[in-house]
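Quick start: what a row looks like.
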Amino acid sequence: MKKLLLSAVAMGLALTSANVSVAQNPHGANAAKYGVAVVDVTYIFKEYPKFKSIMDGMKKEMEAAETQLKADRDRIQQLQERRDTLQPSSDEFKQLDETLARQQAEFQIKAGTMRRDIMEREAKVYMETYREVAAAVRAYATSNNIGLVIRYNGDDVNSSENRQDVLRAINQPIVYQNSVDITPDVLLLLNRGTGVAARPRMQQ
């Protein structure tokens, strides 16, 4: 019974290892052959469902925060308009002026804190996602005897008239790659944790 259990565990580990290998990806067919691969990290970030879901949620939070800040701004504006109808020498003007100054200061602190919090959380999400991508790349490369994985941009800019796109293409270190793009495989490994299939990548 113990031997049977050990055999089952060994088989499970073998299947897990095999799952990291190439799964009919023509884009990366030569990666193991040459021991070198390229990966489009930007594309993975755009197509990784887990990352997209988190960022969509943060976008909604940002919109809700902006709505709340707008309401605060409107209230301060109304208070300012009310103050401006009064005589500057009146006690009510002075009281409203003090209230207005206090609320404006509180608003600036609140707005700054909310935006800084969202930006810090966004940066954390990017870092955690990049670590996931790096781990998937490492697992795939190790399983397929790939000694070097280089980041590149697989976007087609041949017909682009955008100056920034053209400059980005010119400055890209990868001029040519012969079916060593493991981007679909890395994305597949990441998506196994979400159960969502990746959108097919166009052949470059």
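That is the whole record. The two ends are 52 Å apart (CA to CA). The longest helix spans residues 91-143.
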